[in-house]
Design a protein that fits this description.
By secondary structure, the protein is mainly α. Helices cover 67% and strands 0% of the residues.
């Protein structure tokens, strides 16, 4: 799908995309030059990053910049394309949220390796700490995502410990 089609709101499922949500299909369309499986992975990855960024009902500039950098680095995308993917993921997450959050995460869980899930978990904590403070609502959202990814509680705690200095609940005000 071209960017022009995307702006007109026309969305075609990816070749391997049965069961994809509308958001994932839109992002995959923007990544049409990539292998469809890789594009789906990046689309879901970006969407889940945006999920934790909007957990506190506020997506800050620092979170957006970090998500763009992470998606660009992990996906090997140019900055403009990474920014577009993050913008779509964030906007669609704000529009749809709820059920789509679960569906995208569940799909990612079925396709990702354990190492990819743990890497995502680390990125989720990094995004939530972009403002140097992980709020309880963000921590809870990451815990929920870890559960939906079918990661063990020990996995969650292990990754969380690496970001403990940013946990607001542990900071003195």
């Amino acid at each position: 799908m071209s960017i022009r089609e995307w702006f007109r709101g026309q969305s075609q499922p990816a070749a391997d995309g049965r069961g994809d949500t509308e958001t994932v299909r839109r992002i995959v369309g923007e990544l049409e030059k990539l292998d469809p499986r890789r594009a789906r992975h990046l689309a879901a990855f970006a969407y889940i990053l945006s999920r934790v960024a909007r957990a506190d009902q506020e997506v800050g500039d620092a979170e957006v910049r970090l998500m763009e950098r992470i998606v660009g680095e992990r996906g090997g995308l140019p900055a403009e394309q990474a920014a577009l993917v993050v913008a779509i993921a964030t906007r669609e997450g704000l529009r749809h949220g709820g059920t789509e959050d679960f569906l995208v995460t569940r799909d990612f869980a079925t396709r990702a390796t354990r190492e990819q899930k743990l890497a995502l978990l680390d990125c989720l904590f990094a995004v939530s700490a972009a403002d140097q403070s992980i709020r309880t609502v963000e921590d809870n959202a990451i815990r929920q995502i870890a559960s939906e990814l079918r990661l063990e509680h020990d996995d969650f705690i292990s990754v969380r410990l690496a970001h403990a200095s940013h946990l607001r609940v542990l900071k003195r005000d």
